[in-house]
Amino acid sequence: MNLSEVQIRSSALTHNAKVLRQLCKPGTQFAAVVKGNAYGHGVSDLVQHLHPLVDAFQVDDIEELRIVRSLTDHPILVLGYVRAADVSEAIHLGGELAVYDTERLGAISQAAKQVGIRAKVHLKVDALLGRQGLLPKDIPAFIDALKPHAGIEITSVYAHFANIEDTTDLGHAQRQLEAFDDAVAALSGAGLQGTHRHISATSGLMTVEQGNHMVRVGLGIYGMYPSASLSRTHSDLELRPVMRWVSHLAQVKVLPARHPVGYGLTYITPREMRIGIVPQGYADGYDRGLSSSGEVLVRGVRCSVLGRVAMNMFAIDLSAVPEAKPEDEVVLLGDQGDDLITAEEIALRLGTINYEVTTRVSPLLPRRIV
């Protein structure tokens, strides 16, 4: 028995992939986003399970490409930064690279020539996002710069939405779509007719997807909605959380009244209290912001975090679970009995987003498919 581990529910993963795919128009390629260690879920197991359910994978960098390529022959989009020294290896591994400026063309072209493989690239357009990408007005100049590089094949043009999951006002998204359409039209005008396109992640798929060549779905596959409003409008999908993060009580003891708990003396027992020690902490991804505010499940009962979360442990109040004993299971994220602690609940306590919660779970913790 692992004292602490991340359990991955395969049935939930299968369900989520299938219901999200049903939102796609026929012929749309379904790419699973597995960057960030599959949003903290463990990339190796996730890719093997998702392989028959998806058409492609998306990663961020060369390290992730190496791992995913060892597990699947599906197309792999590498949409983050790959340094010039690694481009040859990325092309050799069949990675489809992002290109977002003319400066990258020379390195990609040279690497393709060395490897003897035509490089497949996805042209990133900055469609009113203000991040990585080529501004639509610069596309004609980019196409001129591309002409000498016969070893580069633009397979798709793509973009990201900027403000679609935290709002019910889709005005900016519509303006982005118009800018994206202008970019595609500019490519066609430069002789690149019929270029494939993709812009939607989970939130786009749930709101404005118009039948692009591909969707890049991450968050939804892991059973999380992009926002509370989308969870209401798409409750019929019944997305199921995939991650269950568990530990076990390392110690149970009784502290006297007026006794400090943890660093900084931020919690003093108001009375004699029975507490438990959970061997997880901020080094494992259990955020320090949950000090004296988080809750965990023990024997199906919510127990409050007492005092500061330390690097590798924290204390909890066992007053409501007098029968708890050392090595009892503690659920930090997920269900136990009739209760459930969600990533959304933790994110709300921390003032962040649900997938930051899962992504920050330490990759050193074992992942186990259940």
Order of helices and strands: EHEHHEHEHEHEHEHEHEHEEEEEEEEHHE
Query: Count of helical segments?
Result: 12
- Could you describe the largest sheet, including whether it forms a barrel? 10 strands, mixed
Task: Kindly estimate the percentage of residues that lie in beta strands according to DSSP.
Answer: 15-25%
CATH architecture of the largest domain: Alpha-Beta Barrel
Quick structural gist:
The chain has 370 residues and is α/β, with parallel strands linked by helices. The chain contains 12 helices and 18 strands.
Account of the protein in words:
By secondary structure, this protein is an alpha/beta fold. The protein folds into two domains: 10-234, TIM Barrel (Alpha-Beta Barrel); 243-369, Lyase, Ornithine Decarboxylase, Chain A, domain 1 (Beta Barrel). Helix content is 28%, strand content 23%. It has helices at 10-21, 35-39, 43-50, 62-69, 87-92, 103-115, 139-146, 171-189, 202-207, 228-233, 343-350, 354-359, and strands at 5-8, 29-33, 56-59, 76-78, 95-99, 119-124, 152-158, 196-198, 214-217, 243-248, 251-255, 273-278, 295-298, 301-306, 314-317, 329-336, 339-341, 367-369. The strands form two sheets. Strands 1, 10, 11, 12, 13, 14, 15, 16, 17 and 18 form a ten-stranded mixed sheet that branches. Strand 6, helix 7 and strand 7 form a beta-alpha-beta unit. The longest helix has 19 residues, at 171-189. The protein is elongated. The mean pLDDT is 94.
